[in-house]
Every structure is written in C-alpha cells, then in structure tokens.
Amino acid sequence: MATEKTSDTTSIGKLALYDLKNGIKNVGYSLSRPFHWKKKDFTTLGTIFVSTLALSTIDDEADEVFVRNEPHVPRVFQEAGTRFGSPQVYFIANAGLYGFGLFTKNEKIRKTSVLIISSSVTTGLIQSLSKTAFGRARPGNGLKSTDFKFWSHEAKYHSFPSGHTILSMTMAHAIAKQFNNTWSKIGVYSLGSVAPISRLFAGAHWLTDVGLAAVISIVVVDSIDKFMFKSNTYKYDKKEKQISWRLSFSGDKIGVIGSF
Asked: How far apart are CA 105 and CA 92, in angstroms?
C-alpha cells in the first residue's frame, strides 16, 4: 500500500519523519531481497561472480601498472579521490543535500537524498560484512591478490570490496538517475569515478575490489529506486528513468555497458 504523499503545507518535522520512515522501509526492503530472488536474479549473481573471477586474473598485473604510474597522477586528483570517498565528507555532503531539500521542501531533492542514504546504509552493511568475512589482503603488504584471511579484523586484510568506491558510486548513481540528459549523467559518473580510480593509483585496492564495489552500488540503488517508484512515496516522472547494464564479451576483453 502506497504511503500517503506529503504536501507543501506539511511541517518540516512531519516531512523529516516521513522521510525517515521511508528510509527505514527502503533499507528493510533491500536487505530482504535475497529471500525473494527468482531464477533470473540468481543468474545475474552468477554472471557477476564469473565476471569478477575473470577480472581477478589480472589483479596483480593491473596493480603494478597503476602503482608504477601513480607519480604521474596530479596530487589534486589523488587528494580529491581520497577525501570524497571518505565517510566523513560523504555523510556531510549527504546531510547538506538533505537539509537543503528539507528546509526548502523540495520533494525531488529530498527523494534523491533519501535514496542515497538508504542505499548507503545497505551498501555499507554489505561492505563491512564482506571486508571481514572475505579477509582479502590489500596491495602493498608483500601479499598477493589471492591471499585471504577469512574473518580477519586486521586492516591489511580488509581490501574487498572498496569502501571509497561504494560510497562515491552510490551517490553518483543515485544523482545521475535524476537527470534525463546523457551529458549530465556522464559528468556525474565522471566525478563519481575519481575516488575509485584514485584508490587504484594509490595501491589501496585491487581492480576487482573496485569493480565489484561499483556493481554492488548500482544494484542496490536501482533496487531501492524501483521500490520507491512502485510505492509511489515521492513524485516521479511518468516514465521511470533507468540505465540498462549488460556485460559485453569480445575476444579477450570483458566489459560492462550502460545504455541510457
């Protein structure tokens, strides 16, 4: 049953409570999805697993290339990537965005912010559990990409997946979905990719850490956005705006293509 929408005359307190309730519903929905998966969902999961496994075969080589070229990367790029992908800056930016939408009673901005926050909570839980459960070694510790120490609490075994990538791509994908213009989307995704790429040059993560983190962000954001659309909790365009993602195999290459 759809939650009753709020109007411009609703108090800020009631709007905040409305958003909080919907945010909690979004997180609950996204975390419960695996219990409702169908055959196509497990097929998608299998495809992601196989693709990640295939990409992992070049993790060590890719790390060497990125680290070797790190001195040629502008300091401002590395600094921007590290700061934007940090939890502190990320949540300050979200709080600012939501605060603006709340006090101006702008429903589209509020909806976007609720989507970001809900997705962040879900991806954050997935990331935290995965880092400890998989216990994958980080680059630069004299260890290889195939070294794991399951259920480890050591920082050097918390590489998989990339937290900076999950945060930046969650925000970028949620914001990009609000634009109809292709170039606007490209601009948003370009900014969102700064943190993931900078982590590779810094030798902080393997290529698959970043790749899978981006996929997790996209899947979670799309899932919650679809739920919000069907629940009719906020105003949406008549035509739901989605990006269609598919894997592409060609010769010795593998990639992901997004169709706007």
From this structure: 19
pLDDT band at 255 (very low <50, low <70, confident <90, very high): low
Q: How far apart are CA 93 and CA 131, in angstroms?
A: 25
Say how many residues make up the chain: 260
Q: How many CA atoms lie within 13 A of 174 on its CB side?
A: 30
Question: Residue 246: enclosing H or E segment and its boundaries?
Answer: strand 244-250
> 22 near 110, Cβ under 8 Å?
no
What region does 35 belong to: left with phi over 0, alpha with psi -120 to 50, or beta? alpha
81 contacts 199 by C-beta, under 8 angstroms: yes
Instruction: Determine the Cα–Cα distance for residues 89 and 171; give it in Å rounded to an integer.
Output: 12
How large is the C-alpha radius of gyration of the chain? 19
Whether 258 shows a pLDDT value over 80: the answer reads: no
Give the Cα separation of 244 and 227 in Å (integer): 17
Q: CB–CB of 110/15 below 8 Å?
A: yes
What mean pLDDT value characterizes the chain? 87
CA distance 134 to 160: 7
Phi, psi of 256 (to 5 degrees): -120, 130
Gap between the Cα atoms of 182 and 177, Å rounded: 10
